[in-house]
Amino acid sequence: MEQTTQKSSLERVVSQRALQMGSSFPCQICVMGFFCGVCITYFFLAALISFGAMESKGVAFSTLSIGILSQNSTSDIGINGDPIPLVRETAWRMNSPRVNEQQDDDKASLLYSAWSVVLNESIDKDGMLLSRSSIPEAPHLENCQLVTQINKFWDNPRENETVPSWTTWKGSLGMELLHQKSTLDKELQGVPHTANTEGAYPPWIEGSDGDNFPLTRKVQHDLWVHQHPTNCSDPKVRFLVADWEKLPGFGIGAQFAGMCGLLAIAINEQRVLVTNYFNRADHDGCEGAQRSRWSCYFFPETSIECQDRAFELMKRREAWEHGTVTAKDNYTSKEIWAGRIPRVWGEPWSYLQPTTEINGSLLRIHRKMDRRWWRAQAVRYLMRFQSKYTCDLMNTARHSAFGLQAAKMVVQSLPPEWPKVCL
Ligand SMILES: *[C@@H]1O[C@H](CO)[C@@H](O)[C@H](O)[C@H]1NC(C)=O
Ligand SMILES: *[C@@H]1O[C@H](CO)[C@@H](O)[C@H](O)[C@H]1NC(C)=O
Ligand SMILES: *[C@@H]1O[C@H](CO)[C@@H](O)[C@H](O)[C@H]1NC(C)=O
Ligand SMILES: *[C@@H]1O[C@H](CO)[C@@H](O)[C@H](O)[C@H]1NC(C)=O
Ligand SMILES: *[C@@H]1O[C@H](CO)[C@@H](O)[C@H](O)[C@H]1NC(C)=O
Ligand SMILES: CC(=O)N[C@H]1CO[C@H](CO)[C@@H](O)[C@@H]1O
Fold first, then answer.
1. Which one of 111, 177, 320, 335 is CB 3.0 to 4.6 Å from 407, fit for a cystine?
2. Same domain as 410, residue 379
3. β-strands 238-242, 271-275 pairing
4. Does residue 133's CB lie within 6 angstroms of at least one atom of ligand 1?
5. Which atom of ligand 4 is closest in space to residue 321's alpha carbon?
6. Residue 401's closest CA among 155, 141, 150?
7. Are 414 and 306 within one domain?
């Protein structure tokens, strides 16, 4: 309700503002900039209102804003090699005794439009006047294709190993492995690299032990191993299959808290946790097998083999009777929401740095420290790698929020004749 009124009053202001402005080029830029501001404001509003709303409306709106911009940038950027009005005008402006600031703003919006086109993979890139090489890297955008490829490599164990090829150090090695995988495979054939995996830390954890909650790297490593048994068909492997909470009153935070409790039960009962229906992924953005699944947004909590095996076991009566598979209904809500935190790693929460301040002093010890520590671990594990879909959503969101700002900064470091050099 509130959102709609805000939106329509914004729209009114925008159209009034647009009418007031003439059709001369600088004003078009102003209008664009203004639209952008509106998009940013709207996006943050949407993000504040709810995560769910952000996924559907916020992103749709920011996509729309890029659409508006690229509508005009199609003529700006030019098709068929015709001289493009925007660049011609920019060139003219550069020769005229105008203030540098205006030139930079023009260049920044050209760059912003070019990035918008690059971001939208479905637009035919041949139609772009600026050649790909003349468009500087966008510091706020990720190469989702490559990142997802690397993450896949990191999430799949090599043959006969329990853990993927995580190195004990972070560097460019991940990328090198990806590009020269076949040659490296040959080189590594004789090397007993299994020896390394015990001490190898999961690549999704940034920083050292001191930078993270106590034992984070060890716990994340162990969670991954627990959730990825080498042979899911082994009759000894047991499962806990659970839907995400879906009562309308449950926000995303409650859904996470519930799933963290279920992961704790799974660890304590030595079961592999398999998540099932996720209402927040029940929309067309999540295609095919990812529909209504956690894996629409993040890498799945377990391997595909284990998921398949668990769903197959659920159809068998004896699997239920023997307790090979359990579901959420097998546990009370007290067990799920306030159950025992796994103690397999001791009590690392007792080494937490105090962060809770009451009346000006930091509290060293308080109740529920264990739960806080565990939820951080569980959520970190579940969100270890973004799916390409999430990566794309984040790119779009960052572009509409910071794209123009980033363009202005990048333009400062370009040669003064840009973009003429690239024509
Ligand atoms: C890309 O452009 C097409 C055509 O203009 C549009 O339909 C689509 O929604 C855009 N996608 C994104 C992610 O901006
Ligand atoms: C994996 O183990 C099997 C049986 O132990 C062996 O035949 C195979 O060569 C091993 N593969 C690699 C890549 O070491
Ligand atoms: C996994 O375990 C099952 C049952 O013990 C066995 O039939 C199958 O061959 C095993 N698969 C592999 C790859 O070891
Ligand atoms: C889980 O619940 C099912 C039916 O709801 C029941 O058949 C099964 O025995 C229960 N399993 C355990 C381990 O309690
Ligand atoms: C905070 O400090 C004030 C003054 O020292 C005291 O009156 C108050 O009771 C304290 N509150 C708590 C929650 O400890
Ligand atoms: C959003 C925007 O700036 N749209 C403009 C695109 O260009 C046409 C004419 O070139 C203008 O009429 C629009 O206002």
1. 111
2. no
3. parallel
4. no
5. 9
6. 141
7. no
